[in-house]
Write a structure and sequence with these properties.
By secondary structure, the protein is mainly alpha-helical. The protein has a domain of 53 residues. 59% of the residues lie in helices and 5% in strands. A hairpin with a 2-residue loop joins strand 1 and strand 2. The protein is flat. Bound molecules: zinc ion.
Length: 165
């Protein structure tokens, strides 16, 4: 049989008798299509959680019970116009407040974010690199130690404490 459609999800042929679903011009197995949709949905859920977490963090920083409309607008604006995501904003605020020890001025909401985003990204990139390097070193050390004593896995997972870097 020529031109049997291939399911883009599992990359296998969709047979005539298979239960199938057409979506955006492609033919999926029905169950593959459902899986795809479920994955998309859970991605969205993750996004919602990150956003919620960001909102909570801002309220905590400004000691507010709810998020001012100004800040809600700022978040949407940064995300849609500046290609900054919720986690970027959260990181940038953390960088500004905790690392640089500044205070947010409630009058300007989180208007500082675009000005510090590059520095913040750089800071977290370097932090992550250090983190990975330490982890590698630790695994290397552990492997050397394994001959003399068994690895304590309890210890092993708590080896790197970012706050101590
Ligand atoms: Zn499939």
């Amino acid at each position: 049989m020529a031109n049997k459609p291939k399911c883009p999800y599992c990359n296998k042929y969709v047979e005539v008798l298979d239960s199938q679903k057409k979506y955006k011009g492609k033919t999926f197995h029905s169950y593959c299509y459902r899986k795809l949709q479920a994955e998309k949905y859970s991605d969205n859920l993750i996004d919602i959680d990150v956003k919620k977490e960001l909102c909570n963090y801002i309220m905590q920083l400004l000691e507010l019970e709810e998020l001012p409309v100004l800040i809600q607008h700022q978040i949407e604006k940064f995300c849609s116009m500046l290609e900054i995501n919720y986690k970027d904003i959260r990181d940038a605020l953390y960088y500004f407040v905790e690392i640089q020890e500044n205070k947010l001025n409630p009058k300007y909401g989180i208007g500082i974010v675009p000005d510090i985003i590059d520095d913040s990204r750089k800071f977290f990139r370097e932090l992550e690199a250090t983190h990975k390097r330490l982890k590698k070193q630790k695994i290397y050390d552990q492997n050397k130690l394994v001959k003399v004593k068994p690895i304590d896995y309890e210890d092993y997972t708590n080896v790197i404490d970012i706050s101590q870097l």
